[in-house]
């Protein structure tokens, strides 16, 4: 919902002779942060956690990985510990395991130790929205839209409130991953509804022969908020931008006197996905 | 406690009145009006030359003098008008009304030597700026749209968060801390088109007064300032009209007498850039709409010399539609009924009943995703204000008001059968605000006069509704606990407040004075906004069991001196203000359609201080003012900025405005203004990290507003051409040529940080500029 507000003010602001220039700015050096990207999913991919360090704001090199960490994920159901899975260190600060797949309603606790400091984070794997199907249609260029093939989503939002989703769209296995492509939705206003054809790739038309894949990842409330905050801080600009504010992390140091700032998120998702080949369509259907 | 204080106030009043009869004096009273159109004139100095005492007309043009029997010369004087002198032999209560004519012969040296108004030094008020609507109309305007709010921003102590931003900031207060009154009804959003233009049609405005300090007890409900805008009553002498055709909008006004006891004015304005879209070849463009309009109307009826009734209304709206993709609209509406009643020459009363609302809606009109989201604030209020003129040196203002609010924080409706949006509505909020006040204006001696008083206000947050307490860790969204149900009208939380006000004037000599003031103000409604600049979609919310009333205490001191027989007014005012229960938000707060909005709010305190320097030349072919403000405004909020003070976004250390108006000849006049201000405060990141391939900016240490955008400065020019009109025709026209941002300065509105579009690993800083170019315009105005 909030993005409609953003959308409206951005469009109107554009009409009001706003202009942007890249400028040279000196910013002070910041403290180094520990960055955590970790996600448990219910698909057959390895479960991965990536640990790295932050950079100075205008440092364009690759981030430094946090190596030699001890990382494990504990699995719980209704508060009872089921199992503990140690993660093996791979290249570039990535730690992974294929010992388990995420299960619905199970809770996961990430624990890791870096440079003698211990950290933890909790999450839960919630249900996702099953996809009924994708459909392709062709649009002539008009106004802000360019011509090309567009995807429509049909899906059943499950009955009962409290579901949140992250949407990810791939064109031939390449994820649309610009800041403005981060797309989330809660079921607060659409609970139990049939999603009867929502356009997925507005502004990113597909071509004939492309393969489109669409994924819906379930999110906890905390993860939903994390992604929304993240989007606010990276899709920034215009007179009505949210003021800069740090994105809160769900990872905590086990020793409260630890002063290293931690950023990032550990989450768990059930994923539903669908794939479609873009081919010539019968115009009479339109 | 609350009722006790209220009762003692009433008692005090009664005692004051009973002592009034002790002294025998006669009243000279009446109205001061404009000779050309019969408009009542506000703030006219009415002086007794014999003993150099005097008063000023109130907002309805009424004055009252108390004098012993004798012969007097009474002079009414007002800037821009010729003085009128009347002799009176006083042996009983006497009605003496004045009609003043404009000093049209501006090119001749005006030869009135004595009793030029010296109000700014002699009057018991400070922190007050009056802007003559004619001066506002003479100043260069953005795209030719004469703008009350933009003119206000050139006064000392007033700033804004940026070019074209909604509202204005007074002495370090937020934009929601200004009580903007249009014929006594509050206006909740003062802007059209997101802040580029203000909602007041200048043709309907008679008088604009901004009160920043020494706020009289009569006013309350907002912390920082009162912007009192009075609409014209309508020409009571003859039928007339005026209008203008501008680059952005056109205006038209008609006014005139209805009978010999009543007159009316109707005025309207509409922007028309979107009308050209209809001629576009592109169908998508043709389906777009973008316009604003406003309409106001006023009728007054004089029943007899003791009773007069005014009826006024305002309605304005902004509308945007982008094909079938998206639409939005917002606007204010106000309606006021007023009854002036003279109980006797000494007791003037005004009874007001007003209605005011602000609402917005946005949505998608068609299709699977069709929805309509709407929000509003509605309030209506009965109000009574009395002025009792006890004697020449003493008068009382007192009155009472009740305001009934209803807030609709947000609702969603689905618009089409196929829409997959469910209906959703946040519970409405209800609140009642009450106030009684009394203040006493007293001239203790030739040198010392004072105005002191008290306002007792209270807010009752009432049901129906379910309320919660919120618990949780500081700095992150809290959890609702302890739900409690309240029935309709049942009191949930009640907050009484005592608001003492005091002002002392000490006359140093004929041409200079010192003034000191203290005021406490309370505010019970709050604008919730988490964007850098306020947007039309911000939400007004009530004080609740969790959101406490905002309170401010301000002390100020000023030195006022006039030069060259009051031709030049100068003043220096310093102020210090503290603000309690200021509202802020947790990082990543979710403010829209959030049933637990209060879980995301943070509270803290604010402080603001500064010095304001003002030089004004009132008369002559060349007039204008220079204003400079050195100030600071900061806040300290739980769990933000490590609980250290940090500057508000609109903190402008230096703020300078220069306005000059030059009447070159009868045909040509010119004006120019220049503004300079320190750049707004802003938070810059110092680190970055990558999450899922996206570069995220971060400020380690969570420091707020640690940088400034570059300084703001701008110059505007305008020229007015008045072609010679034929003598026997009433029709007059003029051309106004204006240039906004003369040297095309690209002023930074804000600076933000993002990853490069082509190379996502590269980060860059981007300066956003609004109106960073030269903007010429032509307007044609006419009147008949």
Separate helix tally of chain B: 5
Round the Cα radius of gyration of chain B to an integer and report it. Answer: 27 Å
The strand count of chain B comes to 51
Low-pLDDT sequence parts of chain B: 18-22, 105-115
**Separation of the first and last Cα atoms of chain A:** 29 Å
| Shape, principal axes of CA atoms of chain B | globular
The SSE string of chain A, one letter per element, is HEEEEEEEEEEEEEEEEHEEE
- Category from helices, strands and their pairing of chain A: mainly beta
User: What is the topology, as strand order, of the major beta sheet of chain A?
Assistant: 17-9-8-5-6-7-3-2-18
What are the SSEs and their pairings?
The complex is a heterodimer of chains A (286) and B (784).
Chain A: H1 2-15, E1 18-23, E2 34-41, E3 47-53, E4 55-56, E5 70-77, E6 80-89, E7 94-97, E8 107-114, E9 117-124, E10 131-139, E11 148-156, E12 164-171, E13 174-175, E14 183-186, E15 194-199, E16 211-219, H2 221-234, E17 252-253, E18 262-269, E19 271-277
Parallel strand pairs in A: 2-18
Antiparallel strand pairs in A: 2-3, 3-7, 5-6, 5-8, 6-7, 8-9, 9-17, 10-11, 11-15, 12-13, 12-14, 12-16, 16-19
Chain B: H1 2-18, E1 26-34, E2 45-48, E3 53-56, E4 62-67, E5 70-77, E6 84-90, E7 94-95, E8 98-100, H2 119-122, E9 128-132, H3 133-138, H4 148-152, E10 158-159, E11 169-170, E12 178-182, E13 185-186, E14 191-192, E15 197-198, E16 205-211, E17 225-231, E18 240-245, E19 249-259, E20 262-271, H5 283-286, E21 289-304, E22 307-322, E23 326-344, E24 347-364, E25 371-391, E26 394-413, E27 424-425, E28 429-443, E29 448-462, E30 465-471, E31 479-486, E32 491-509, E33 512-523, E34 525-528, E35 539-542, E36 550-563, E37 568-585, E38 601-617, E39 622-637, E40 646-647, E41 654-663, E42 668-677, E43 681-682, E44 687-691, E45 694-698, E46 707-708, E47 712-721, E48 732-740, E49 748-755, E50 763-770, E51 775-783
Parallel strand pairs in B: 1-7, 1-8, 12-17
Antiparallel strand pairs in B: 1-4, 2-3, 2-5, 5-6, 9-16, 10-11, 12-13, 14-15, 16-17, 18-19, 18-51, 19-20, 20-21, 21-22, 22-23, 23-24, 24-25, 25-26, 26-27, 26-28, 28-29, 29-32, 30-31, 32-33, 33-36, 34-35, 36-37, 37-38, 38-39, 39-40, 39-41, 41-42, 42-47, 43-46, 44-45, 47-48, 48-51, 49-50
């Amino acid at each position: 919902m909030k993005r409609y507000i953003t959308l409206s003010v951005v469009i109107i602001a554009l009409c009001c002779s706003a202009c942007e220039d890249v400028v040279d700015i000196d910013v002070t050096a910041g403290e180094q942060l520990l960055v955590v990207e970790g996600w448990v999913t219910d698909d057959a991919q390895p479960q991965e956690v990536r640990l790295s360090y932050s950079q100075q704001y205008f440092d364009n090199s690759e981030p430094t990985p946090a190596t030699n960490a001890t990382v494990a994920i504990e699995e719980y159901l209704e508060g009872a510990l089921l199992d503990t899975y140690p993660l093996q260190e791979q290249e570039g600060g990535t730690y992974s395991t294929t010992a388990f797949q995420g299960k619905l309603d199970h809770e996961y606790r990430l624990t890791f130790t870096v440079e003698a400091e211990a950290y933890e984070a909790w999450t839960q794997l919630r249900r996702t929205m099953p996809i009924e199907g994708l459909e392709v249609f062709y649009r002539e260029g008009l106004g802000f839209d360019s011509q090309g093939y567009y995807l429509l989503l049909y899906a059943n939002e499950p009955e009962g409130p409290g579901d949140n989703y992250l949407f990810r769209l791939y064109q031939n296995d390449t994820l649309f991953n610009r800041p403005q492509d981060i797309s989330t939705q809660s079921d607060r206003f659409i609970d139990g509804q049939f999603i009867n054809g929502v356009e997925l790739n507005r502004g990113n038309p597909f071509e004939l022969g492309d393969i489109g894949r669409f994924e819906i990842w379930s999110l906890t409330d905390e993860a939903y908020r994390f992604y929304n905050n993240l989007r606010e801080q990276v899709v920034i600009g215009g007179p009505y931008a949210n003021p800069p504010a740090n994105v809160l992390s769900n990872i905590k140091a086990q020793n409260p006197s630890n002063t290293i700032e931690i950023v990032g998120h550990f989450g768990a998702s059930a994923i539903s996905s669908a794939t479609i080949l873009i081919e010539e369509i019968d115009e009479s259907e339109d | 406690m609350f009722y006790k204080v209220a009762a003692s106030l009433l008692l005090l009043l009664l005692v004051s009145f009973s002592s009034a009869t002790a002294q025998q004096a006669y009243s000279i009273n009446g109205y001061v009006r404009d000779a050309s159109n019969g408009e009542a004139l506000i703030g006219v100095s009415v002086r007794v030359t014999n003993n150099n005492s005097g008063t000023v007309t109130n907002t309805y043009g009424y004055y009252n003098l108390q004098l012993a029997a004798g012969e007097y010369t009474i002079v009414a004087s007002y800037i821009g008008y010729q003085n009128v002198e009347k002799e009176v032999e006083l042996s009983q209560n006497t009605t003496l009304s004045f009609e003043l004519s404009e000093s049209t012969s501006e090119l001749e040296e005006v030869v009135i030597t004595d009793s030029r108004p010296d109000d700014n030094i002699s009057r018991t008020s400070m922190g007050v700026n009056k802007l003559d609507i004619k001066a506002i109309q003479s100043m260069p305007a953005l795209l030719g749209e004469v703008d009350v709010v933009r003119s206000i921003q050139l006064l000392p102590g007033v700033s804004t968060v940026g070019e074209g931003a909604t509202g204005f900031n007074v002495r370090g207060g937020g934009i929601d801390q200004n009580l903007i009154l249009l014929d006594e009804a509050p206006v909740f959003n003062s802007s059209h088109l997101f802040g580029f233009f203000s909602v007041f049609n200048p043709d309907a405005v008679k008088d604009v007064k901004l009160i920043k300090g020494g706020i009289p007890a009569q006013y309350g409900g907002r912390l920082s300032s009162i912007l009192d805008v009075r609409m014209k009553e309508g020409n009571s002498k003859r039928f007339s009209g005026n209008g203008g055709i501008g680059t952005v909008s056109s205006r038209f006004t008609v006014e005139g007498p209805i009978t010999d006891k009543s007159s009316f004015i109707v005025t309207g304005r509409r922007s028309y850039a979107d009308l050209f879209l209809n001629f576009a070849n592109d169908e998508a463009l043709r389906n777009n709409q973008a316009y604003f309009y406003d309409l106001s109307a006023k009728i007054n009826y004089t029943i007899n010399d003791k009773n007069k009734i005014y009826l006024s209304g305002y309605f304005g709206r902004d509308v945007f539609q982008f094909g079938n993709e998206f639409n939005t609209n917002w606007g204010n509406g106000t309606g006021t009924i007023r009854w002036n009643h003279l109980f006797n020459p000494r007791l003037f009363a005004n009874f007001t009943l007003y209605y005011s609302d602000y609402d917005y809606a946005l949505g998608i009109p068609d299709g699977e995703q069709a929805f309509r989201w709407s929000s509003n604030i509605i309030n209506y209020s009965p109000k009574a204000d009395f002025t009792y003129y006890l004697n020449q040196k003493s008068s009382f203002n007192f009155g009472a008001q009740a305001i009934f609010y209803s807030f609709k924080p947000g609702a969603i409706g689905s618009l089409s059968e196929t829409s997959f949006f469910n209906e959703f509505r946040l519970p409405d909020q209800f609140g009642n605000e009450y106030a009684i006040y009394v203040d006493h204006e007293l001239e203790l001696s030739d040198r010392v006069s004072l105005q002191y008083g008290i306002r007792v206000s209270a807010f009752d947050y009432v049901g129906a509704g379910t309320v919660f307490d919120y618990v949780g860790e500081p700095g992150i969204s809290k959890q609702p606990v302890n739900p409690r149900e309240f029935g309709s009208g049942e009191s949930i939380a009640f907050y009484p407040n005592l608001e003492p006000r005091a002002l002392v004037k000490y006359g140093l000599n004929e041409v200079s004075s010192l003034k000191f003031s203290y005021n406490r103000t309370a505010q019970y409604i709050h604008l919730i906004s988490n964007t850098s600049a306020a947007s039309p979609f911000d939400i007004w919310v009530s004080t609740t069991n969790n959101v406490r009333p905002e309170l401010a205490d301000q002390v100020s001191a000023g030195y006022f001196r006039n030069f060259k027989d009051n031709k030049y007014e100068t003043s220096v005012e310093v102020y210090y203000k503290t603000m309690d229960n200021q509202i802020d938000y947790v990082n990543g707060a979710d403010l829209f359609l959030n049933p637990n909005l209060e879980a995301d709010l943070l509270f803290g305190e604010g402080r603001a201080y500064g010095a304001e320097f003002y030089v004004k030349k009132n008369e002559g072919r060349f007039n204008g003012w220079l204003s400079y403000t050195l100030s600071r405004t900061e806040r300290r909020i739980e769990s933000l900025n490590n609980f250290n003070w940090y500057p508000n976004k609109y903190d402008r250390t230096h703020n300078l405005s220069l306005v000059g108006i030059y009447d070159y000849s009868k045909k040509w006049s010119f004006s120019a203004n220049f503004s300079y201000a320190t750049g707004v405060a802003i938070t810059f990141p110092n680190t970055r990290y990558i999450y899922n391939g996206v570069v995220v900016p971060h400020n380690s240490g969570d420091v707020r507003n640690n940088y400034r955008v570059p300084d703001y400065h701008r110059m505007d020019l305008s020229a007015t051409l008045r072609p010679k009109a034929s003598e026997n025709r009433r029709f007059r026209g003029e051309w106004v040529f204006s240039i906004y941002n003369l040297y095309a300065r690209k002023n930074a509105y804000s600076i933000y940080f993002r990853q490069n579009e082509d190379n996502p690993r590269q980060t860059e800083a981007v300066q956003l500029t609004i109106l960073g170019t030269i903007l010429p315009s032509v307007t044609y105005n006419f009147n008949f």
